[in-house]
Design a protein that fits this description.
alpha+beta; 4 helices; globular; Glutaredoxin
Length: 95
């Protein structure tokens, strides 16, 4: 169960670095879908990198979260999209 109130969409968070082509691809994909996100640059803030690793259990970027749901990286997000499960998640439903 999510703590997102009914009728609101969950916040998208992308952990990224400056020189990450998959981060750019993920942001371009989300932009093409009319989505907004919060970007957390782990190359500028080592404490945020540690938080990302603790949450995602991964060290690579991007790491994408929709609300409290860990989507994974760019390939994971695209696979979820192709399976028809990303849009319901973005709309506040379950994956």
């Amino acid at each position: 169960m999510s703590d997102t109130p009914q009728g609101t969409t969950p916040e998208i968070t992308i952990y990224s670095t400056a020189i990450c082509p998959y981060c750019v691809a993920a942001k371009n994909f989300l932009k093409s879908r009319g989505q907004a996100w919060t970007e957390v640059r782990i190359d500028l803030d080592p404490a945020e990198r540690e938080k990302m690793i603790a949450k995602a259990k991964r060290t690579s970027v991007p790491q994408i979260f929709v609300g409290d749901v860990h989507v994974g990286g760019y390939d994971d997000m695209i696979a979820l999209h192709r399976a028809g499960k990303l849009e319901p998640l973005l709309a506040g439903g379950a994956a």
